[in-house]
């Protein structure tokens, strides 16, 4: 700590709370390299089945390859690039194992996304007879030792500060920020490095003369409230070391919306093929609604053209439901309004929103209660059959063209779906990854 900065210390307390953020490095690509160690050190990307990059290893990033780039462009940039199809099932297994490792050290673990977690280690120094940074180092090393992937870890007083720290020195980073160094650290944090400040917010704050996170918290709370509202005021407090957002143990269960998207290759301009892909998205979204015992009233459909531009339309039902047959006619009408002859499409998407718990009854006088009951029972019967014989065994006739992948070099399933253990099927596999040395 420098004593000649001429700026007051924000707080003298090192860790009134010790909050850590653990963030996997290039998670999907790292899982592939962990399963196939001979790929370590090589430029690797996932997303072969989509035609665009889902994740890039740091070796690939060093060549200038980024997520979302077309594979043809990536191969031009790096001829030695290794391209593999995404294996989301295996990535999920690695994710669950990572969370289990963290929970061995502390029960207060918030599964923020598939590859990142917040954890509260306040008060654990007596148990481990170690400092907070040492405890976090134990967690980080355990993940690397047991899963053979690296994570970047940040430790500070709040979730907002911990996340800034974990992003500070990727990959394999380790940054700790005690309270008495806040004023020095935040001086070097640009506004766009603060989670919660989007491009428009950064532009606004820049116009108001701010350049760093320290500039923001040096302004009075009224400044944050006036320009950025409640969220800005809460972030102002978090950046000053006051914990506003608690670590909520468990998964993020609240569903604001449920979306299903699909990129298909090669792109197509045939109406029945593009519509089939969209209807399959709608079916999958409704299946997820029912699995989580939820219902929705708003449907948004999205079509992405071959040039990566896109358009969307949204409509609302008169009541909440989880039945595919309630949403499919609406999806067909929205599709008809969006689809254009002579245009090639590469992806479709369906988003269900205005989500409420199952059983929410907001029927109108004009809704048919007998039909509602029949559709609900039909959905249960379809789920029972598909649960026994595989997802989409029973499906809409309109989605039939999407059920069998067309012959194209990009339509490659992951290795885990091709190399099956005895008794496994494409749809049903035991929850273990397969390693290859």
Features:
Dna Ligase, domain 1; 15 helices; 14 strands; 437 residues; 6-stranded mixed beta sheet; 5-stranded antiparallel beta sheet; globular; disordered N terminus; alpha+beta
In short:
The protein has 437 residues and is an alpha+beta fold.
Would you give an account of this structure?
The structure is a single chain. This protein has 437 residues and is α+β, with helices and mostly antiparallel strands. The chain has a domain at 257-402: 2-Layer Sandwich (Dna Ligase, domain 1). Helix content is 38%, strand content 19%. The chain is built from 15 helices and 14 strands. The protein has helices at residues 27-35, 58-61, 71-77, 88-105, 125-128, 132-147, 159-166, 182-187, 199-207, 213-218, 221-239, 271-291, 324-338, 369-389, 415-418; strands at 19-24, 44-46, 55-56, 82-84, 109-113, 116-120, 151-156, 174-176, 250-251, 257-268, 294-305, 310-321, 345-353, 356-357. The strands form three sheets. A six-stranded mixed beta sheet has the order 8-7-1-6-5-9. Strand 11 (294-305) and strand 12 form a beta hairpin. It is globular. The two termini are 48 Å apart. 35% of the residues are buried. The model is unreliable at 1-6 and 406-410 (pLDDT under 50).
